[in-house]
Write a structure and sequence with these properties.
Layout: E1 7-9, H1 18-28, E2 33-35, E3 42-46, H2 50-60, E4 69-71, H3 75-81, H4 87-96, E5 101-106, H5 113-116, E6 121-125, H6 130-139, E7 143-144, H7 159-166, E8 172-175, E9 186-189, E10 196-199, H8 205-212, E11 247-251, E12 266-271, E13 285-289, H9 292-308, E14 313-317, H10 326-335, E15 337-338
Parallel strand pairs: 1-8, 2-8, 4-6, 5-9, 11-14, 11-15, 12-13, 12-14
Antiparallel strand pairs: 2-3, 3-7, 4-7, 5-6, 9-10
Helix pairs in contact: 1-6
The protein binds adenosine monophosphate and magnesium ion.
Length: about 350
C-alpha cells in the first residue's frame, strides 16, 4: 500500500456517520481501519480473519508474539470470543463496560492463533465510544485492535498521530478528535487466582477489588524481566514501549537533576502534584501536568510535542509512586531511561 491513507472526520457520538459504512466495508474485505476509542486510537482488523490480523503486525512492525486486544460492541459478542465466561467476568463487564478494562479469559475457536500470539487466552473489551461500537456492529465481528502506532512508539491520542506513524500503511483513519481517557486500558487476567493486573490503566486495582469483593493483585514496580525479543507474558511488560525518538530521561521526586545540555536544547515534562515547583526553567518546551486524570489524557500528546520540539533531550520529572499515578508512571518508566 503506497497511496496516502484517507482521513474521515466523524462525530464520536454519531453511529450513523456515512464514513462508518466505508470503514465496515474495508474491514469486511480484510483491510485495516484506525478508529477512535476512549483510550487511544486503535488499529482495527477483523479478528476472525488471520490474513487481516497479519496485516496489523506488518503495518505496526509488531513482534508476532504480542497478543492483540479484541474489541466488541457489547458483552454478547465478547462471550463468543471466550470459551468460559466466569461469574467474575460477568460482574466486571456489567460494572465497567463499556470502558477501559480488558479481561483476559480462555479463548474460543472464533479467535485465531495470530490474535493471541499462540496463547490459549484472549483479551476482550468494549470501548466507550459510540462510533467504535457502531463500527463493530456493522462489521458484525470482533475487531482486533492494538494502538495505532508503530511498535514501541508513542501511542496515538489524535488522528494526526496515527497519520504521522501509519500513513500509506493502512486503508482508512476515522478522526473523532482527541481521545477522552488517553491511556491504554487496564488489563486484568481472570485466568489466574487471584485475578492479576497485567497492565495498569485507568481502572485501578482498588475499584476492581471492591467490585469483585475479593483481592486483585497489582503489578508492582516493573521488573523488566522481558525484552523486545522475548515473548512476554504480556507485551505491556516490555521494557521499551511508548518511547519518543528523542533521548528521554527521568528523574524521580526528590532525586537531583543531573547535568543537562543548555536550556534551549531540552524539553521538560513535569508531572505530579508539585509539577510547577520543579526546575529547570527557560527551556525550549515545558509542559506541567499536575492532575492524574489530565496527565493521563494528554501524556502521549505531550510526548509527541516534546519529540517534535527539536529538543535533543526530554527531561521527565516523575510523579510520585502512588496508586493514582500508577498507570502514568508505568508508561513513563517504559518511555524513558533513568538519569
Ligand atoms: P496494545 O494492543 O498495544 O494496547 O497492547 C496489548 C495489550 O494487551 C498488552 O499490553 C497485553 O497486556 C494485553 N493482552 C492482550 N491479550 C492478552 C493475552 N491473551 N494475555 C495477556 N495479555 C494480553
Ligand atoms: Mg500499544
Amino acid at each position: 500500500m503506497t497511496r496516502a491513507t484517507p482521513i474521515r472526520s466523524i462525530a464520536p457520538d454519531n453511529p450513523d456517520a456515512p464514513a462508518l459504512i466505508e470503514a465496515a466495508e474495508i474491514l469486511l474485505a480484510g483491510g485495516l481501519v484506525a478508529f477512535p476509542t476512549e483510550t487511544v486510537y486503535g488499529l482495527g482488523a477483523d479478528a476472525t480473519n488471520p490474513e487481516a490480523v497479519a496485516r496489523i503486525f506488518s503495518a505496526k512492525g509488531r513482534p508476532s508474539t504480542n497478543p492483540l486486544i479484541v474489541h466488541t460492541d457489547g458483552p454478547e459478542l465478547a462471550r463468543r470470543c471466550v470459551s468460559h465466561w466466569s461469574e467474575a467476568a460477568e460482574t466486571l463487564a456489567r460494572h465497567f463496560w463499556p470502558g477501559p478494562l480488558t479481561l483476559v479469559l480462555p479463548r474460543s475457536a472464533l479467535i485465531p492463533d495470530l490474535v493471541t500470539g499462540g496463547r490459549d487466552t484472549v483479551g476482550v473489551r468494549v470501548p466507550d465510544v459510540p462510533v467504535a461500537r457502531s463500527l463493530i456492529s456493522r462489521v458484525g465481528r470482533p475487531l482486533a485492535a492494538p494502538s495505532a502506532n508503530r511498535s514501541t512508539g508513542i501511542s496515538p491520542t489524535r488522528a494526526e498521530h496515527v497519520s504521522q506513524a501509519l500513513n500509506g500503511r493502512i486503508d482508512l483513519i476515522l478522526d473523532a478528535g482527541p481521545t477522552a481517557v488517553g491511556l491504554e486500558s487496564t488489563v486484568l487476567d481472570l485466568t489466574s487466582d487471584p485475578p492479576r493486573i497485567l497492565r495498569p490503566g485507568p481502572i485501578q486495582a482498588e475499584a476492581l477489588s471492591l467490585t469483585l469483593g475479593r483481592t486483585v493483585l497489582e503489578r508492582h514496580a516493573l521488573t523488566f524481566e522481558h525484552n523486545l525479543d522475548e515473548p512476554a507474558a504480556s507485551p505491556g511488560l516490555m521494557a521499551i514501549h511508548y518511547a519518543p525518538r528523542t533521548l528521554a530521561i527521568r528523574v524521580e521526586p526528590g532525586e537531583p537533576i543531573p547535568p543537562l545540555p543548555s536550556a534551549d536544547r531540552i524539553a521538560v515534562l513535569s508531572i505530579g502534584p508539585a509539577a510547577e515547583a520543579f526546575g529547570p526553567f527557560g527551556v525550549r518546551l515545558r509542559i506541567d501536568l499536575a492532575d492524574p486524570k489530565r496527565a493521563a489524557r494528554v501524556l502521549y500528546d505531550a510526548l509527541h510535542h516534546c519529540d517534535a520540539s527539536g529538543a535533543e533531550l526530554i527531561l521527565v520529572l516523575m510523579p510520585p509512586d502512588l496508586p493514582d499515578w500508577a498507570a502514568v508512571r508505568d508508561r513513563l518508566l517504559r518511555a524513558t531511561q533513568p538519569a
